[in-house]
Amino acid sequence: MSLGRFSRLSMMTGRNVQAAVNMTTGVLKYSTLQGSSSKLAGKVAIVTASTDGIGFAIARRLLKDGASVVVSSRKQQNVDDAVMKLQTEGLKAVSGIVCHVGKKDDRTKLFDEAVNKFGGLDILISNAAANPAVGAVLDCDEDAWDKIFDINVKSAFLLSKEALPLLRKRGGGSIVYVASIAGLQPFPVLGAYSVSKTALLGLTKAAAQSLATENIRVNCLAPGIIKTRFAQAITDPDASRDIALQSIPMQRFGVPDEMGGVVAFLCSEDAAYITGETIVASGGMQSRL
Ligand SMILES: NC(=O)c1ccc[n+]([C@@H]2O[C@H](COP(=O)([O-])OP(=O)(O)OC[C@H]3O[C@@H](n4cnc5c(N)ncnc54)[C@H](O)[C@@H]3O)[C@@H](O)[C@H]2O)c1
């Protein structure tokens, strides 16, 4: 039967299921969206900076696994485009709102969106990051240092704090910080950024300890070099690409979907006994602290 004879209906019984009806026979045929499961069915997630790159891939994977997801970033147009793109893929349980993670009002609206659209919150993914300074850590000027720590660390801390009442209401939940392999082994040219990511490893452990008895798990993803706009300066020019590839045993850069899979695992029941951990996904790049 050719697909052309079917009209596609999305969202029949769940977010992971595509339904197609044969217009001649009226017979309904269901198929599961590629790479999807229902491991996160009934869960509500917020992903910051999720209209592009790793954040978008995380949002898409959580949706495919059955969660309802609020996507966000600083520009309304990017939010609208991301929501449209996901809905076009049949992932209808998505909502979007502008959120600059450094602005309290925006964070409040982000949480309100999850509550108003989907009834609560189970999963917080803190993914936003800024890096206005390139160079050795002690060459970083104060303004750049403050911006890096405001966005990469303080916002992750505040988002977690503000999410707690909602997670507690649901009897538990999952928080995942997106750090970097540079947080374990500083990149010389990303000095201050690397230190900010090291702080997230500490926040993961400290928050996980204090929330462990409340069924709220806190974990961290440390990506290696992943092909996104953020990493273009490394992955695009021939010279830097070749040098970077030499440091990766798998001899290739990661792709955002590979990060989405790790985060979805950390948020799922498969990771029910995992908290306070950082998972490095780097193609084997050396990582130590
Ligand atoms: N791409 C890589 O190689 C790589 C490696 C390790 C870690 N990471 C981390 O992964 C995460 C996602 O990065 P990416 O590679 O997808 O690049 P990206 O540029 O798509 O993601 C970073 C996002 O953060 C957003 N952002 C910056 N300031 C913000 C603010 N105040 N409020 C809301 N959003 C803000 C940016 O607009 C951008 O969309 C980041 O935390 C980054 O540090 C990326």
Automatic annotation (TrEMBL):
GO molecular function list: carbonyl reductase (NADPH) activity
UniProt-listed InterPro entries: NAD(P)-bd_dom_sf, Sc_DH/Rdtase_CS, SDR_fam
Pfam families xrefs: adh_short_C2 (PF13561)
Keyword Hydrolase appears in the UniProt entry: no
Alphabetic keyword roster: Oxidoreductase
Stated family: Belongs to the short-chain dehydrogenases/reductases (SDR) family.
Name the UniProt record assigns to this protein: Dehydrogenase/reductase SDR family member 4
